[in-house]
Every structure is written in C-alpha cells, then in structure tokens.
Amino acid sequence: MEEDRKKKEQELAEKKRAFEKTFAERVNEREAKINERVARLDIREHDLKEEIELRKAELERLRREVDDLRRGSIGDSKTSLSMSMTNENSGKNSPTDKILKKKSGTLGLFNRN
C-alpha cells in the first residue's frame, strides 16, 4: 500500500512537471507571437507617422502657394477665374437642369414621345 501511494505520487509529480512544461512552452509561444505583432505594429505606426508628416508638409506647401497666389495677383486671379468658369459652362446644362428636365417629363400622366 505504501508503494502504491509513492508510485501514485511520482506519477502525479511527473504529470505536474509535464503540464508545467507544456504551459511554459505555450506561454513562451504566445509571448513570441505578441512580440512579433508588437514589432509589426510599431513598424506600421512609424510608416503611418511618416506618411502623415509628408502629407502635412505637402498641405503646408499648398497653403503657402495659395497664400502667395492670393497676395500676388488677387484682382487678376478673380477675374480670370470667373471668366474661365463662365467659358467652361457656356453651352452646357448643369446636372440639376438635366434632373429637372427628366422629372418634368415623367410627371405627366399621358406622355407621348
């Protein structure tokens, strides 16, 4: 009986060591995966921050360019802009005109086309 008890204790101790080993391996694997993911996310974050900085620089450059254009020839740019808009739109209907014509055509009960 004493031998059976000692044998059982040894088996349980071995089983416990095996479980602890498996647990430690799984914890290490999980930590490695987490560390890899953190490294990938850090790289992605760095890339995105660089992209944001580039876009901010481009935006600032465009703002300065617009400010320079406004300060440089404000009267000329307004008249030339309004002239180009009227020239572009001459002879064309706006999209809302097309929609209104289409709706007015479909409002009648007895349309003959």
Largest sheet: none
**Percentage of residues assigned to helices:** over 70%
- How many distinct folded domains? 1
Rg computed from alpha carbons, rounded to a whole number of angstroms: 38 Å
Topology as a string of helices (H) and strands (E): HHH
Q: How much of the residues is beta strand, in percent?
A: under 5%
In one word, what is the shape?
elongated
Counted beta strands: 0
- Label the structural class: mainly alpha
Please work out how many helical segments DSSP would assign: 3
Low-confidence stretches: none
Description:
With 113 residues, the protein is mostly helical. It has helices at 2-72, 74-89, 95-107. The longest helix is centred in the N-terminal third of the chain and has 71 residues, at 2-72. It starts with a helix and ends in a 6-residue tail after the last helix. The model has no long low-confidence stretch (mean pLDDT 82).
Topology:
Elements: H1 2-72, H2 74-89, H3 95-107
Quick summary:
The chain has helices spanning 2-72, 74-89, 95-107. With 113 residues, the protein is an all-alpha fold. The longest helix is centred in the N-terminal third of the chain and has 71 residues, at 2-72.
Offer a few descriptive terms.
elongated; 113 residues; 88% helix
